[in-house]
């Protein structure tokens, strides 16, 4: 998370202590990113490969490495899986989350509906839109870090976020109508 993120430097970059600290601090975050891109079944493979690359390229790992690691994970995914296959896996994972995970607190019925609507809307987004929103909202990257991961400028990121939010709002409206049986024009007798 930007400059507040702890630095991964406890020892010399060539040491196993340095790598152990890097792995311990960031594996869960990289794994979480991978889950949102390729689903739980493949996330560990992507995260593990990311850290193999980090070890091999330890001389270029930045002092605050989260955005760099997520960028590496993103490239690993690009190399291993075609766009269509990833899209299907993500949609299936989001659907599973929407139907099996319990809400955390508050009015249970309202939270279930809200959560399902949001997950359906996210699953319906094009992968490009979903990725930018997940980097910022789910993974907590700053706009600068998200732009770095995506390989674009901050103004380009701003445009992508604006477009993605518009698409998400449209899909939330659609999912809300689908979740509300009264909104389809049904009338009571």
Automatic annotation (TrEMBL):
CDD domains: Sigma70_r4
Domain annotation RNA polymerase sigma factor 70 region 4 type: ranges: 117-168
Top-level taxon of origin: Bacteria
UniProt KW Thylakoid keyword: no
Regions that span the bilayer: none
Alphabetized InterPro entries for the sequence: RNA_pol_sigma-70-like, RNA_pol_sigma-70_dom, RNA_pol_sigma70_r2, RNA_pol_sigma70_r4_t2, RNA_pol_sigma_r2, RNA_pol_sigma_r3/r4-like, WH-like_DNA-bd_sf
Keyword Transcription: yes
UniProtKB keywords: DNA-binding, Sigma factor, Transcription, Transcription regulation
RNA polymerase sigma-70 region domain segment(s): 22-86
Stored Pfam families: Sigma70_r2, Sigma70_r4_2
SUPFAM superfamilies: Sigma2 domain of RNA polymerase sigma factors, Sigma3 and sigma4 domains of RNA polymerase sigma factors
Name recorded for this polypeptide: RNA polymerase sigma factor
Organism annotation: Actinomadura violacea
């Amino acid at each position: 998370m930007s400059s507040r993120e702890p630095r991964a430097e406890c020892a010399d970059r060539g040491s196993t202590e340095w790598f152990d600290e890097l792995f311990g601090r960031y594996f869960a975050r990289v794994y979480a990113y991978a889950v949102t891109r390729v689903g739980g079944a493949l996330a560990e493979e992507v995260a593990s490969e990311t850290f193999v690359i980090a070890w091999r390229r330890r001389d270029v790992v930045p002092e605050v490495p989260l955005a760099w690691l997520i960028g590496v994970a993103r490239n690993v995914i690009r190399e291993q899986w075609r766009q269509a296959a990833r899209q299907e896996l993500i949609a299936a994972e989001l659907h599973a989350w929407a139907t099996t995970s319990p809400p955390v607190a508050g009015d249970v019925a309202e939270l279930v509906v809200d959560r399902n609507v949001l997950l359906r809307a996210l699953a319906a987004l094009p992968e490009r839109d979903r990725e930018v929103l997940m980097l910022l909202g789910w993974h907590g990257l700053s706009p600068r870090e998200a732009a770095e991961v995506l390989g674009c400028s901050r103004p380009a990121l701003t445009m992508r976020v604006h477009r993605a939010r518009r698409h998400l709002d449209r899909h939330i409206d659609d999912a809300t109508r689908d979740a509300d049986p009264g909104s389809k024009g049904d009338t009571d007798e």
